[in-house]
Design a protein that fits this description.
Keywords: Electron transport, Heme, Iron, Metal-binding, Transport. The protein is mainly alpha-helical. The chain is built from 6 helices and no strands.
């Protein structure tokens, strides 16, 4: 009888293996947190409203903001000349590969390759208004 109980527990454990949401099957739980992805950016960027610039400009309110427009930050000539606004498409391209999106940028970050992580990060940044 004991071997059947061990087998049943083992089968239940394996049935939940690989599920990201604790086994409930719910799609409501985000696989990637934008806040977690932002931790890679925090060494150079702040996100607090009115926060100081660091090695990179403060990113509070970046979504919908004019490119290269944070007062007091010295942008590369390439980014200053880009023009436009930081909409979701522009941010997605820049976050994926800053050097490819804006040749001559001083941003040394190699980029976020995962489309899912970029989407989560942009959604997180969109909330900062």
């Amino acid at each position: 009888m004991r071997s059947y109980a061990v087998l049943a527990v083992g089968m239940l454990t394996l049935s939940a293996c690989g599920q990201k949401d604790g086994g409930s099957g719910s799609a409501d739980v985000a696989a990637v947190s934008g806040e977690t992805v932002f931790k890679r950016c925090a060494a150079c960027h702040s996100i607090e409203k009115g926060g100081a610039n660091g090695l990179g400009p403060n990113l509070h309110g970046i979504v919908g903001r004019k490119i290269a427009s944070v007062p007091g930050f010295s942008y590369s000539q390439a980014l200053a000349n880009k023009g436009g606004i930081w909409d979701e498409a522009a941010l997605d391209a820049y976050i994926e590969s800053p050097a490819r999106a804006v040749a001559g940028t001083r941003m040394a970050f190699s980029g976020v390759r995962s489309a899912e992580e970029r989407k989560a990060l942009i959604a997180y940044l969109s909330e900062l208004k």
